[in-house]
UniProtKB/TrEMBL annotation:
It comes from the Bacteria. It holds the Pfam family HTH_30. This is PucR C-terminal helix-turn-helix domain-containing protein. Residues 273-323 form the PucR C-terminal helix-turn-helix domain.
Length: 350
């Protein structure tokens, strides 16, 4: 197709642009990109807000021209353009007159979403996982699906980022996460140790309600000491899970305490590891020993941190504040991952 595009460029520029749009979405389908990755690609291509509504996926979302998720979807422009294919609806909100290729972008976007969804459903294991996680599936269908997957009454759900799909077995793609169902006894070989993963063990009969818990754990899957991806088990989060479910990365990043800790960390790389160590140990001497420091050095660091942060670290209120700050920092840091790569167009389709 590229040879045809080159030839058409010399004859009919608009026809060449149309073929570029078609090739762009064909490539997204070939790469089995997620719905959200396609949505961002369509918005960047159209250079305006784009949205989609797919009831079967349970997905209704819109992004602006830069690919950022929008919180308000129904307040579109008066000239909103809508395209429907099967049960999928997509739309485009452009200020001013429509661009010549707007209709083609929407049509290819909707068809590509449908094509990827159908291709995923043809994989028997993925299809079984979809049934197991579907809240509308009957208990009998769910049990049959789990049996086809070779799973027993207790299973382990693992959520990973779609960007890491090449490092994991093929799983059920939901938004930008990939969901896997494993036996209860999860071994280290099943998940690379340096891969961000949220893990939750539950009864197979409850997986349709509880697979989201693994996604919650994934949203905080960063090691506080190193800042690198890690594995997080939902059951170990306790009430922290409520914070993770209700605070997004942008809100976390706006916290004054988080901003201050980031500033201090940029000056002295031991700041966040020290705060984490203080939460996990009851005495300064024990904290110092585990940090390979003399206890007097640890006391100096604590005094310096208290002056910089403006509150006593070792008090009950100080520990609570450290804990909430580090939780917000993890939410923010875990979200700072690249989205799955999508092929770039040379220019917007004006």
């Amino acid at each position: 197709m590229r040879e045809l595009i080159v030839k058409l460029n010399t004859i009919d520029g608009s026809a060449a642009e149309a073929l570029r749009v078609i090739e762009h979405f064909d490539t997204l389908v070939d790469q089995r990109c997620s719905a959200l990755a396609m949505l961002r690609a369509a918005a960047l291509l159209a250079d305006c807000p784009v949205g989609l509504d797919d009831p079967e996926r349970g997905l209704r979302v819109g992004v602006d021209a830069a690919g950022r998720t929008m919180t308000v979807l129904d307040a579109g422009t008066a000239s909103r353009q809508v395209e429907r294919f099967e049960d999928i609806t997509v739309w485009l909100d452009r200020e001013g007159p429509a661009w010549p290729l707007d209709h083609l972008v929407l049509e290819r976007f909707a068809r590509s979403l449908h094509a990827v969804k159908k291709s995923r459903d043809t994989n028997p294991a993925v299809g079984a996982m979809r049934i197991a996680c579907d809240p509308d599936a009957s208990p009998a269908d769910r049990d049959n699906a789990l049996r086809r997957l070779g799973l027993g009454s207790t299973i382990t759900v693992v959520a990973s980022h779609l960007a890491d799909a090449q490092r994991m077995p093929r799983g059920l793609v939901i938004d930008e996460q990939q969901i896997h169902l494993f036996p209860e006894a999860l071994t280290d070989k099943m998940i690379p140790v340096d891969l961000a993963a949220g893990i939750h063990t539950c009864a197979g009969a409850e997986v349709h309600r509880e697979w989201q818990y693994a996604v919650t754990a994934l949203r905080i899957a960063v090691d506080v000491t190193t800042g690198k991806p890690t594995h997080v088990r939902y059951d170990e989060l306790g009430s922290t899970a409520t914070i993770v479910d209700n605070i997004d990365a942008d809100t976390a990043a706006r916290s004054p305490d988080v901003r201050r800790v980031i500033e201090l960390q940029s000056e002295r790389p031991w700041v966040i590891p020290t705060l984490e160590a203080l939460l996990g140990h009851s005495s300064i001497r024990e904290t110092a020993r585990l940090q390979n420091l003399h206890h007097s050095t640890m006391r100096q660091r604590i005094s310096w941190l208290e002056r910089q942060l403006g509150y006593p670290l070792l008090s009950s209120s100080g520990c609570a504040r450290i804990s909430s700050t580090l939780t917000l920092w993890r939410i923010m840091t875990a979200a700072q991952r690249p989205h799955p790569e999508v092929p770039a167009m040379a220019a917007n389709c004006r």
